[in-house]
């Protein structure tokens, strides 16, 4: 790693290019300079064009192939330059001519004049076209970008049966328009920065100025400024670099593929972070209950949404507890199992060669293997995995008395309940294993101590200064309106405390509105 | 480097802490024999105790849909000694926490129970909520051995029977903690249900009916099923059951189902003597009228209720008299009531309560309310 850096540095010094040097007046010199800079880059295109009527007008355009819109360059730059009839009014010296070209000839809306070489190099690699005029020590930075992007599709995570179907794609600008279309208000701010010393990935902070907390915004910008990485491929990199509590398995920054979800978070005073090339937007601060919130909850009847949320909360609890409680009951506290259940467990466990704990770890591992196998294979063989996994392995293992039937039920239940909370999959697996170990060593006692530890850990977490367990354990009705329950929209007239503290009122409560 | 060594030492100590402390109390259930019930007999040959254990046989249960049973019998001098020695017979440790019943032979019960039930209530592996029975047969293990006839686990059947006992009220429901509680109190005598073997048409079954009466920890006598019911009335322990009522001519005609019953016992000084005044209020439903004539025409419901009340009153009184005269055992807890209501008097009476109880004046007043006549308001009428 260090070695390559040295050689790259020496390459750069061998070229002896000082990117802060002034541009040359001569077009040929400039072209030669660019050829040197992009020496082994086959995608660089350099074209020299002249005006048909006026020989003074000799120009060069430089761009990277594949990142520009060819039609736009032909109709907007080359054709007008070649055919425009320059008169004396259009100027006599190159500076005046350049101004004429910028204002009257080139037929493209987004043009910036620039004289700095490093800016121009950045523009070329960013897909812009640069335009030189012979005799003038400056250039035009023309935005004629054009490349293929994925269409706006329904997001594959965060599926909703009812609600908007649009999902982000890999183009930052498209993603920002998806947000802008939902908030047509000048209060919505988009602040751009580049992150990545080599990749220079465009990053956009997106927030509502009147709602977002300035402290959190400042903290976020500070953290982004301190990020040291050479490239960013996904917001996942960024989330890990700027999050709080780097050792906790719990996510401290939310991520979503849905524009509607980002907008709803922005509307609560949160800040969103998007980067070029990733369809996942980050939202922060992030609190624990957001793990249980699906965007669909807000679009369907609130009583049903509340029921679904409660299911998810119970599911998360069951998915960490079931194996641990089973092991604790069967190997330590047999007296707590109802007699008939104990009899059927004892019967099923007969002639199973492994101790219960080994059985539990074996089955949980097999389940995780099946999950991981299913996650990455093509859809066409996905069925085969579930058939092999569920039917062949499970059934045969029970028949062959390698594992007991109750353990298969335990692992099956654990797996299903994990699927209820796709956002919590990772943390749940880790917590489940820790609790299982605790109850293996200390029985029910160990399990409860493990739970206690989990609660202490969760309570101590903070995301951008906001308590991770915001609203959990509160008995004020206002605090729990959007937690394990989802209050009807006509009742949610305040934003969540702390995050939306700057401007609490979503709307006037009904009573006051009547007055 | 420094943080690495810190993390490593923390990990190492965590691993040692857990692995050196071992798996506290870890035991697999398939390495244990689940005990369903125990019978304790006297072994006359060696003059010591014999413990018979009914266990669930999970091995058999694998082939059948129903769990099967295994029996083991062993004698020894102390119960715990026998219980541990059983491992050498079964090869597995016994799991006592799912035992439901403990059956004592009458002989053991008459000699004194404390020495045999102490282990059961003291040990950490056993539970204090097992049902206690006294066997009316010669040996207690005979009852458990009925399982070879019925092909079911007798202990669990008995436990189920005790849960439904409130619908008949012909035997008290006694768990071992409750029994010990009564033994320890000075104004209350312990009782336990009696268990019989019941044979009809060659089919043997267990049958719980009647009460064993204890003075201190020794069994002194028995009450039959009916007497038990009236004794339970006096103890305010009736939750259900049936009261038979005769018609005006003296033949049993009506059945009243007890819906709820409340007994109030009040000690009172009457002419310088302590008198217990018992007042029972029983809500019933008329559930059977074995008569072709409409009861409403011939006899009013009120008349039936009054007659039922009178006979109940008499029956309760006669059970109390029997206790006073024959066994001198205050199974009704009158002493406790005096203790609660008249603490000063109790202090004087405490030491001579058994004699005091024998001479106690008792007045019973029973009130029966017939709330309904179940589904029908008339009798079945014969068509012409």
Architecture overview:
The complex is a heterodimer of chains A (515) and B (384). Chain A has 515 residues and is an alpha+beta fold. Chain A has 3 domains: 5-142, no CATH class; 172-286, no CATH class; 309-466, no CATH class. Helices cover 46% and strands 11% of the residues of chain A. Chain A contains 16 helices and 12 strands. In chain A, strand 1 and strand 2 form a beta hairpin. Chain A is elongated and about 105 Å long. In chain B, helix 11 (225-234) crosses helix 13 and helix 14 (334-341) crosses helix 15. Chain B contains 16 helices and 13 strands. The longest helix of chain B is centred in the last third of the chain and has 27 residues, at 301-327. Chains A and B meet through helix 11 and helix 15 of A and helix 2 of B. Chain B: It is found in: Membrane.
List keywords for this structure.
heterodimer, A: 515 residues, alpha+beta, 3 domains, five-stranded antiparallel β-sheet, 16 helices, elongated, B: 384 residues, alpha/beta, GMP Synthetase, Chain A, domain 3, 2 domains, 13 strands, membrane (chain B), signal (chain B), Spore_GerAC-like (chain B)
């Amino acid at each position: 790693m260090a070695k390559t850096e040295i050689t790259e540095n020496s390459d750069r010094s061998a070229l002896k290019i000082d990117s802060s040097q002034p541009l040359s007046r001569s077009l040929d010199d400039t072209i030669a300079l660019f050829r040197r800079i992009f020496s082994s880059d086959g995608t660089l295109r350099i074209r020299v064009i002249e005006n048909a009527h006026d020989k003074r007008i000799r120009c060069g355009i430089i761009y990277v192939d594949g990142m520009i819109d060819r039609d736009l360059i032909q109709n907007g730059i080359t054709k007008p330059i070649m055919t425009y009839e320059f008169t004396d009014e259009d100027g006599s010296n190159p500076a005046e001519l350049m101004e004429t070209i910028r204002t009257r000839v080139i037929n493209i809306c987004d043009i910036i004049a620039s004289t700095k070489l490093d800016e121009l190099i950045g523009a070329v690699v960013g897909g812009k076209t640069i335009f030189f005029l012979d005799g003038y020590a400056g250039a035009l930075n023309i935005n004629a970008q054009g490349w293929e992007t994925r269409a706006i599709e329904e997001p594959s995570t965060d599926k909703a049966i009812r609600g908007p179907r649009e999902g982000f794609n890999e183009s930052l600008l498209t993603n920002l328009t998806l947000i802008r279309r939902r908030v047509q208000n000048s209060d919505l701010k988009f602040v751009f920065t580049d992150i990545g010393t080599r990749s220079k990935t465009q990053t956009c902070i997106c927030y509502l100025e009147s709602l977002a907390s300035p402290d959190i915004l400042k903290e976020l910008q500070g953290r982004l400024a301190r990020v040291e990485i050479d490239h960013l491929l996904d917001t996942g990199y960024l989330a890990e670099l700027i999050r709080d509590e780097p050792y906790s398995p719990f996510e401290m920054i939310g991520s979503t593929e849905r524009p509607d979800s980002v907008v709803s978070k922005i509307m609560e005073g949160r800040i969103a972070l998007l980067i070029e090339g990733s369809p996942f937007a980050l939202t922060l601060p992030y609190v624990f209950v957001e793990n249980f919130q699906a965007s669909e909850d807000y679009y369907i009847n609130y009583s049903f949404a509340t029921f679904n949320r409660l299911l998810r909360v119970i599911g998360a609890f069951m998915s960490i507890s079931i194996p641990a409680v089973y092991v604790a009951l069967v190997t330590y506290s047999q007296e707590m199992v109802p007699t008939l259940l104990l009899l059927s467990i004892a019967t099923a466990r007969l002639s199973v060669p492994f101790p219960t704990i080994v059985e539990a770890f074996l089955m949980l591992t097999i389940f995780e293997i099946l999950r991981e196998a299913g996650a990455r294979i093509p859809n066409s063989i996905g069925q085969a995995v579930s058939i092999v996994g569920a039917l062949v392995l499970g059934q045969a293992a029970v028949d062959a008395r390698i594992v007991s039937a109750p353990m298969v039920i335990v692992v099956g239940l654990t797996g299903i309940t994990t699927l209820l909370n796709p956002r919590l999959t990772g943390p749940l697996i880790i917590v489940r294993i820790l609790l299982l170990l605790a109850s293996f060593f200390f029985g029910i006692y160990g399990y409860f101590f493990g739970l206690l530890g989990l609660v202490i850990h969760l309570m101590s977490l903070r995301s951008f200064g906001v308590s991770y367990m915001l609203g959990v354990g509160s008995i004020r009705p206002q605090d729990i309106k959007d937690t394990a329950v989802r209050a009807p929209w006509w009742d949610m007239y305040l934003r969540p405390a702390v995050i939306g503290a700057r401007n609490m009122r979503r709307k006037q409560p009904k009573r006051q509105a009547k007055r | 480097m420094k943080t690495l060594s810190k993390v490593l030492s923390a990990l190492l100590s965590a691993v040692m802490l857990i692995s050196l402390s071992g798996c506290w109390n870890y035991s697999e259930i398939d390495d244990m024999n689940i005990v369903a019930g125990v019978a304790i007999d006297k072994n006359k040959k060696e003059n010591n105790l014999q413990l018979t254990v009914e266990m669930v046989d999970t091995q058999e249960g694998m082939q059948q849909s129903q769990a099967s049973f295994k029996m083991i019998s062993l004698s020894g001098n102390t119960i715990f000694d026998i219980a541990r020695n059983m491992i050498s017979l079964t090869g597995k440790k016994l799991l006592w926490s799912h035992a439901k019943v403990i059956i004592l032979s009458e002989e053991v019960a008459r000699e004194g129970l404390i020495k045999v039930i102490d282990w059961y209530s003291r040990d950490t592996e056993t539970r204090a909520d097992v049902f206690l029975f006294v066997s009316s047969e010669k040996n207690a293990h005979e009852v458990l051995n009925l399982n070879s006839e019925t092909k079911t686990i007798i202990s669990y059947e008995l436990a189920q029977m005790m849960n439904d006992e409130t619908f008949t009220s012909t035997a008290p429901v006694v768990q071992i903690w409750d029994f010990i509680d009564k033994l320890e109190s000075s104004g209350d005598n312990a009782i336990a249900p009696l268990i019989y073997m019941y044979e009809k048409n060659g089919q043997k079954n267990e049958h719980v009916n009647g009460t064993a009466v204890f003075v201190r920890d020794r069994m002194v006598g028995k009450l039959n099923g009916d007497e038990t019911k009236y004794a339970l009335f006096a103890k305010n322990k009736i939750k259900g059951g049936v009261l038979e009522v005769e018609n005006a001519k003296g033949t049993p005609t009506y059945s009243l189902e007890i819906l709820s019953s409340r007994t109030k016992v009040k000690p009172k000084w009457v002419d310088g003597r302590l008198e217990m005044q018992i007042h029972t209020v029983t809500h019933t439903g008329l559930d059977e009228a074995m008569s072709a004539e409409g009861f409403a025409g011939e006899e009013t419901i009120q008349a039936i209720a009054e007659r039922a009340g009178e006979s109940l009153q008499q029956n309760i009184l006669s059970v109390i008299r029997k206790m006073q005269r024959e066994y001198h055992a205050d199974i009704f807890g009158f002493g406790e009531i005096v203790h609660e209501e008249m603490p000063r008097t109790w202090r004087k009476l405490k030491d001579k309560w058994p004699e005091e109880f024998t001479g106690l004046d008792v007045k019973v007043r029973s009130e029966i309310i017939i709330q309904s006549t179940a589904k029908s308001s008339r009798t079945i009428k014969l068509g012409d």
